[in-house]
Amino acid sequence: MELRDLETLIKTRRSIRRWKQKPVPEDSVLKAIELGTWAPNGGNHQNWKFVVVTNQDVIHRMADAVQSKVDLVTSWPEAAGFGETIDRWKNNADFFRNAPVCIAVLMAKYESVADQILRLRDPGDTSAQAMIEARETVKSGVQSVAAAIGYLLLALHCQGLGALWMTGPLLAKIEIEEMLHVPQELDLLALVPVGLPDEEPSQSRKPLSEVLEFRR
Prior knowledge:
Elements: H1 3-12, E1 19-20, H2 26-36, E2 48-53, H3 56-75, H4 83-92, E3 101-108, H5 113-120, H6 126-136, H7 140-158, E4 162-163, H8 173-179, E5 186-197, H9 208-211
Helix pairs in contact: 2-7, 3-4
């Protein structure tokens, strides 16, 4: 593959929220997940698992659970100061109920050797606690699964499918995990609804000069 081909693939991928009500080829989803599992990951632990949901009743129930949580949160007095943002969130929280496929991305816990040693260290060691706090901001296990989701999205797009990386549904994490019979040793990390795109959204990016610095 030429770099320009990869550039085109990356730059034309968009977050899709509307899908045609047509079947999604299962082989295409499986291929995308397979490619996702080639993402870099901590210690080659490969701490991911994917649940492909095509049962529309289950997808609708997941969407209902998310909508219920959003309705609750937006009813709190603390939400009053967010104006129209709250209305948009409430009105669009369950849009993924119309996706023909929804991939639940799960994460197994992962501890590197550094994490294990730090966990065993005397809590009174302030230098160890500082390192623990620093590592809490990076979470190797989360980053590993996130890398797989990035690969997954590109592989879906390459096959003409539209998808979206969603963490908002984690408001209903407990309910969704129960619906999908997720074992205790795994955690729901994201939902990725998938289908044939029924929209062509456009998004810009910040200039590189705003997000890049050199230390020469």
